[in-house]
Amino acid sequence: MASALLSFTYQKNKSMLSRKTSYLLLFPVFVILIGYVVWPFLRTIETGLQGDAWHAVFKSEDSPNIRALLQSVVLGLLSVVGAGVLGTGLAWLFYRFDFPLRRLLQAMAALPLALPPLVGVMAFLYLYGPSGMLPRSLQVLFGWEEVPFSFEGFPAVWLVHVYTQFVYFYLFVSAALRNMDGSLLEAASDLGAGEGRMFFKVVLPILRPALVGAGLLVFMVSMASFTAPLLFDGSGRYLTLQIFNYKTNGERELAAVVSTALTLICLVLLVVAEWKPEIASRQRAKGTASPTRPITQPWKRGLALGVALLILLFLGLPVLTIVLLSFAVEGSWTTQILPSAYTFSHYRMLFNDPSFAEPIRNSLQMAALATLGNLIFGITASLLIVKSRLPGRTLLRVMTALPFAIPGTVIALNLILSFSTPSALSFGQILVGSYAILPLAYFIRHIPLVVRATTAALENYDDQLTEAAYDLGASTWRTFRTVMFPILLPAIVAGTLLSFVTALGEFVSSIMLYIIDNRPISVEILAQLRQYNFGGAAAYSVLLMVLIGASTLATQWIGRVGSKKSNI
């Protein structure tokens, strides 16, 4: 017994990082997290505590910031309801029923993920705004003097949130349904339960952990939303807009107060969200999946086809609108339903005109720099979290998740307040107003992406492979390079590509930190939009969607190849 225990301990230790290696890796990771994530936020809190900034921001119930807080909370709650109903409904329909266009709908359900926030908002503006294609079409079709509706203000912001955020519910609920024991549905059906009673009495309790997790995520994302409020309700009151307006007016203390309040709310949500997956794992049901039920009655199939077409239009029209307008001649779309003239000139300028190509080059360079940093940092931090024996691993895991809870507007303000003067962390340079400030902001925002993906892969990694390599005489570096890394590669690539494409379309931090020499694609899209160059803005948007789509396909392909290799 004693010899077996010693053997186990010896083999277990071989799969872990040595204490010396752990501390060598911990030092740069700790410096980065403290220096560029924690300390800038503490600097913002300190700025907000100066003078009577807190009293000035929240001095009375009629304060615009109180109204902004209430409106942001209401928007978050309504976004959870709208996205939850749509996302959960789609996941249940795809899981339970077989109907016309089902496979096409499944393929398109995650389409909003391919739209950067600014592009999605712009698509809704073109499609549903006061001069949008759909309101004008209905006006002409029915001969009305005015458009019958137009989405602007708070309702438009909510609709954009439902479109872009229902995917979280769809993905969470779909995963929970795949793990559900299908025999529960068969038993409920045998006992005479209808579809509605079955869903609310049997399925919904099983889905509760997934719904809570998705709801917390949607609420947090909605609270941090900036692009939709800016373009659809710029004069409205939202916490993110208040931060942007205070920063623009040079009122940094007031911006710091609102940033602190918004981040604290998101931090609470992050803590709850981090706690919920443990509950979900304990409540997960096991068993075989339930087969889909074909809809055979003609009227029901017709109804299902009609609903499917409506959902397809809702999902696909924003993308088709952007693609169509990318070919429109500037000035050819004023009061018409559709542009009256088309051209390929916007795409030629993107690749041939240096002034048009510069934002593309800037975005690619800055996204690549930030992603390289995320890759190196993510692998290092994940090894410490999973494969070290350091006593502070839980704290390290929490610290790497902090950027999830810090909205982009707050990260930008943190950097402005922390690096507007020379410091050791900026190597004696002033980063604000320099080229480097945006890659740094992208890196900070996307720290959790590579860390989470790599950590999940490491936790599922079989340590016996490492132990076998050590027994055959391989060094630590060779074992990592030839055994661990190939198995972990699909997850690392997925997190890395997600970081890259997210950085390509990053708008929130960019609009607050960019300078003319490093303006990215997202800022250039907004500039083209404000100059009424709809075709140019749409062409940039299509390019972003193509890059994101290509990266997504590459991630899926690498994942399939990796899973095949791991099964060999």
Name its key features.
568 residues, mainly alpha, MetI-like fold, two-stranded parallel ribbon, 2 strands, 75% helix, globular
Textual characterization of the structure:
- The chain is mainly α and 568 residues long.
- It has one domain (19-111, 165-291, 346-567): MetI-like (MetI-like fold).
- It contains 25 helices and 2 strands.
- The protein has helices at 2-14, 19-48, 53-57, 64-96, 102-108, 117-128, 133-142, 153-178, 183-190, 195-223, 227-232, 239-248, 252-283, 298-325, 345-352, 354-387, 393-405, 408-418, 437-445, 447-459, 463-471, 476-504, 508-513, 521-530, 534-567, and strands spanning 97-98, 293-294.
- A two-stranded parallel ribbon has the order 1-2.
CATH architecture: Orthogonal Bundle
What pattern of helices and strands is seen along the backbone?
Answer: HHHHEHHHHHHHHHEHHHHHHHHHHHH
Radius of gyration using CA atoms only: 26 Å
CATH homologous superfamily heading: MetI-like
The number of domains: 1
Q: Largest sheet, described in full?
A: 2 strands, parallel
Instruction: Write down the overall mean pLDDT.
Output: 83
Shape assignment: globular
Through-space gap between termini: 35 Å
Q: What is the beta-strand fraction? A: under 5%
